[in-house]
Design goal:
Blueprint: H1 11-27, H2 31-42, H3 76-80, H4 84-94, H5 98-111, H6 127-136, H7 152-179, H8 189-216, H9 239-242, H10 246-258, H11 262-275, H12 280-289, H13 293-304, H14 312-328, H15 332-345, H16 350-362, H17 366-379, H18 387-396, H19 400-414, H20 418-430, H21 434-447, H22 452-464, H23 468-481, H24 486-498, H25 502-515, H26 520-532, H27 536-548, H28 555-566, H29 570-584, H30 586-597, H31 602-605, H32 610-627, H33 629-636, H34 641-658, H35 663-674, H36 681-698
C-alpha cells in the first residue's frame, strides 16, 4: 500500500465518511466502533485556513467499489426510518431485550422469505438437525428475492435487518452464558453460523446461475436478468465477498472465533474490512490474531493484496491497525512512526494522543507517559478510556494524592465502568487494603469479563495476599484473553518462584522477556531464576542484558556485583560496584568528600610499607570480611537507592583494604559511608571496624 505521507487527503470527505459511519454503526448497535470513530471525527485537523487539503473534486474511493459509503452505504438512519419493524427491534435492542428483538426480526424476515434456511429455528439446535433442515427444506421453499435485483437502499435495509437480528441473538446467548453458571457456552453461535453460511451458498449459487444464463444468450450487459435496479458493483468484487455485508462478515468471524476456528474467523474479519474499512471492531479482531511477529507478517501480506483497501480511508484504517498491533507487540519505534503520520490528520484526537503516551509508557518513561495522559485527561476530563493505565503509572510512582483524586473523580463520573473499578482497586492496593482491591477488580470483571487489566492486577493482589492458587488462575485467564500481556507472564513467573518451582518460573520469565526484550526488570527476574538454579553463567549474561536495557536505578549492576561476590570473583564485583556508583552519581560525591575531608594517606604510609601492612593486618582484615557476609546478604534484599549505595560502599571499603592494601581508597569509601544518614546500626558498626583497622595501619 502507498504511504499516506505523500498523499493529499480530502478532510471534508473524511468528515463525511466518518459521520456516515458513526450513524450507521450506532444504528446497528456497534457502539464501541461508533464511539471510536466519533473521537477521530472530533479530532480531525481544522481545514478552514489550510492549504494541505486537496481542492480538487477527488473522493477517497471510486464509486465503482461496492463498499464505498458514497455509493452504496446511504445513511442507515434514512433507510431504516421507513421500516417500523427495524425501529421496533432497535428499541428492544437498546433496552437489552435481545431475545425478543431477535424473535421479532426473524419472524418478519421469514415471513418475507428474506432469510436462508427455511424452517430453521434457533431453539433445540444441533448439528444433525441443522443439516437435515438445510437439505430438506430447499424444494418446498418459496422463491427468495434476488439480491442482484435489489436497489442499494433495499440491500442496505435488508443487511441491517439481518445483522441486528443475528447480533441480538448472539448477545442473548452471551447474556445467558454470563447469568447462568450451568451454561458454559453461547448456544446460539452454531445456529448463526449455519444461517450465514447458507446465505453465502445461496448467493454464490444464484450468481453462478445468472452468469451461466448470460453466457448462454451470448451477452453480458452488466445487468442481472433485466433487473430494473441492477447493482453494477456486484461485477467488481468476488461472489463470495458480496454474499454478506461488512457487519455480517464481522459477526460470522466472531462466531467462528468462539468456536475456536481461527482460520475461518480471520478470513471473515478480513472480508469484513474489505467490505467496510471503517469497521474498527473487525480490525481489532484481526489484531488479536496477530499475536506474534510471524502471524502479523502473514496478516499484513494478506491485507496488502486486497484492492478494496487501496483507498484513502482504507490506508488510514490500515495505518491505525498497524499502529495498534505494533504497540501490542512492543514494536514501539514502528508505532511511533505511524503515530507521527496520524497526528497530522488527527492532531486533537484523544485516542491518538493516548496512543502516543502508551509508546513512552512501553519504554518505561513513566514521567513522559504521565505527562501525556494528563494532557488527554485535562482535555477531556470525563473520558474514562485508558484511565486504568494512568492509575498504574501513579501506583508505580507511589503518588497517593493524585491516585486518590483520580479514583474519586472516576467514581463520581461513572462508578459502574470497568475502568473506574480498576482505578479504585489500584487506590486500595496502594494503601495496602488488598482484599478491598480484589473486590473492585472483581466488579470490573463483572462489567467486562475480558477486561485484561483487571485479571492481571487481581493476580498481583493475590500474590500480595499469598493466595498463589488464585493468583495463577487470574494470570492464566489474563493470558487467555491476551497472550501478549507480559505482565501476566511475569506474574506467573513470580508466583511459581514463590512456590520454589524454579523451572516453571524460568519458563514464564522467558516468555515475559521475549515480549519485553528491552525491559531490564524482565532480564533481572530471569537472571535471579538462573541464579537459584545455580546456572551462574546464564545469570550473569542476563544481568548484563538488564544493565544494557534501561537500568537507571542500577539494580541489575548491584545484583551482578553481588553474584560475583558470592562466587568469590571480587575483582569483577568491584568493577561492577564502581560502575554502579558512577552511574548513580555517587562516585563523584565520594571523590569530592575525600578531597574536602581526608588528607592523602598513601604518602604517609609509603608504598614500600604495603607488604608490611598486608602481613601485619591480614588476619584482622580477613576476619572482618568473613564476618560481614551476613550484612551483605541483608543489604542485597534492599533495592532502594540507600540500600544499593550502602552495599557498594561497604564492599569497596573492605575490598581495597583486603585485596589491594589500598588504605586511601578504602578509607575514602568507608568514611563516606560512615557519615551517611539512615544507615543501620549494623552497617555503622562494620564501617567503624574498617576505620579502626585503617587507623591502626596508618600508625604502624
Amino acid at each position: 500500500m502507498t504511504s499516506l505521507a505523500h498523499q493529499q487527503i480530502s478532510i471534508p470527505k473524511l468528515q463525511e465518511t466518518f459521520t456516515r459511519g458513526i450513524c450507521n454503526f450506532s444504528n446497528l448497535g456497534l457502539i464501541s466502533t461508533s464511539k471510536w470513530l466519533s473521537e477521530l471525527l472530533i479530532g480531525l485537523r481544522d481545514t478552514s485556513n489550510d492549504n494541505f487539503t486537496s481542492k480538487t473534486n477527488n473522493t477517497f474511493t471510486s464509486p465503482d467499489h461496492h463498499h464505498s459509503s458514497l455509493f452504496l452505504q446511504q445513511s442507515l438512519i434514512t433507510v431504516t426510518s421507513s421500516s417500523p419493524h427495524y425501529l421496533h427491534a432497535k428499541a428492544l435492542f437498546d433496552a437489552k431485550e435481545y431475545r425478543r428483538c431477535a424473535f421479532i426480526l426473524e419472524r418478519y424476515l421469514r415471513s418475507q422469505h428474506l432469510i436462508a434456511g427455511v424452517g430453521m429455528t434457533h431453539e433445540g439446535n444441533n448439528a444433525e438437525q441443522m443439516s437435515q433442515k438445510l437439505v430438506g427444506g430447499a424444494n418446498s421453499a418459496p422463491l427468495r428475492p434476488s439480491r442482484s435485483d435489489m436497489s442499494p437502499a433495499s440491500l442496505l435495509l435488508l443487511d441491517s435487518l439481518k445483522f441486528l437480528s443475528f447480533y441480538a441473538l448472539y448477545m442473548a446467548g452471551e447474556k445467558q452464558k454470563r447469568d447462568h453458571v450451568d451454561v458454559p457456552d453461547n448456544t446460539e453461535i452454531q445456529y448463526i453460523v449455519n444461517i450465514l453460511e447458507e446465505e453465502r451458498r445461496e448467493f454464490v449459487t444464484e450468481r453462478r446461475t445468472a452468469g451461466a444464463q448470460r453466457q448462454s444468450v451470448g451477452g453480458d450487459s452488466g445487468s442481472f436478468g433485466g433487473s430494473h435496479h441492477p447493482n453494477h458493483s456486484f461485477e467488481l468484487l468476488s461472489d463470495d465477498l458480496m454474499a454478506l455485508s461488512g457487519p455480517l462478515w464481522y459477526l460470522l468471524g466472531v462466531c467462528y472465533n468462539k468456536l475456536h476456528k481461527k482460520d475461518q474467523a480471520l478470513d471473515c474479519f478480513i472480508r469484513s474490512v474489505r467490505r467496510d474499512a471503517l469497521l474498527w471492531c473487525s480490525w481489532l479482531c484481526i489484531a488479536e490474531m496477530s499475536d506474534t511477529k510471524e502471524n502479523f507478517a502473514q496478516v499484513l501480506q494478506k491485507l496488502e493484496k486486497k484492492a478494496e483497501l487501496r483507498t484513502e480511508i482504507g490506508e488510514i484504517m490500515f495505518l491505525f491497525f498497524k499502529q495498534h498491533v505494533h504497540l501490542e507487540l512492543q514494536m514501539n519505534e514502528e508505532a511511533q512512526e505511524e503515530l507521527d503520520l496520524l497526528v497530522q490528520l488527527f492532531p486533537t484526537s484523544s485516542y491518538v494522543q493516548a496512543q502516543r503516551a502508551f509508546v513512552v509508557y512501553n519504554l518505561t518513561e513513566l514521567d513522559e507517559a504521565q505527562k501525556g495522559l494528563e494532557q488527554v485527561f485535562n482535555h477531556d476530563p470525563y473520558r474514562l478510556d485508558h484511565l486504568d493505565t494512568y492509575s498504574n503509572i501513579l501506583y508505580v510512582k507511589n503518588n497517593k494524592a493524585k491516585l486518590s483524586h483520580l479514583a474519586h473523580h472516576a467514581h463520581k463520573t461513572d462508578k459502574y465502568r470497568a475502568e473506574t473499578c480498576c482505578v479504585v482497586g489500584n487506590y486500595y492496593s496502594l494503601k495496602g487494603f488488598h482484599e478491598k482491591a480484589v473486590i473492585y477488580f472483581k466488579r470490573a470483571l463483572r462489567v467486562n469479563p475480558t477486561y485484561l487489566s483487571a485479571w492481571t492486577l487481581m493476580g498481583h493482589e493475590y500474590v500480595e495476599m499469598k493466595n498463589t492458587t488464585a493468583a495463577v488462575h487470574a494470570y492464566r485467564t489474563a493470558i487467555d484473553v491476551n497472550n501478549r500481556d507480559y505482565r501476566a507472564w511475569y506474574g506467573l513467573g513470580q508466583t511459581y518462584e514463590i512456590l520454589r518451582m524454579q523451572q516453571y518460573a524460568l519458563y514464564y520469565y522467558s516468555k515475559a522477556t521475549a515480549l519485553r526484550q528491552y525491559d531490564g526488570r524482565m532480564w533481572c527476574a530471569l537472571a535471579t531464576c538462573y541464579e537459584q538454579l545455580e546456572r551462574y553463567k546464564d545469570a550473569l549474561r542476563c544481568f548484563e542484558r538488564a544493565h544494557l536495557n534501561h537500568d537507571p536505578e542500577g539494580i541489575a549492576l548491584c545484583k551482578m556485583a553481588n553474584l560475583y561476590r558470592r562466587l568469590n570473583e571480587n575483582r569483577f564485583a568491584a568493577k561492577c560496584f564502581i560502575k554502579l556508583l558512577e552511574q548513580l552519581g555517587v562516585l563523584k560525591d565520594v571523590e569530592q568528600f575525600s578531597r574536602d575531608n581526608l588528607p592523602s594517606v598513601t604518602g604517609g604510609v609509603g608504598t614500600n610499607r604495603m607488604p608490611l601492612l598486608r602481613a601485619g593486618f591480614s588476619n584482622s582484615v580477613y576476619h572482618l570480611f568473613s564476618t560481614t557476609q551476613e550484612e551483605f546478604d541483608t543489604l542485597e534484599q534492599d533495592e532502594s537507592m540507600q540500600g544499593i549505595t550502602s552495599t557498594a560502599l561497604l564492599f569497596l571499603s573492605i575490598y581495597y583494604l583486603q585485596e589491594k592494601s589500598d588504605i586511601e581508597n578504602s578509607q575514602k569509601f568507608a568514611r563516606y559511608l560512615h557519615y551517611q544518614a539512615n544507615i543501620t546500626d549494623q552497617i555503622k558498626k562494620v564501617t567503624e571496624n574498617v576505620l579502626k583497622i585503617l587507623q591502626d595501619a596508618m600508625t604502624v
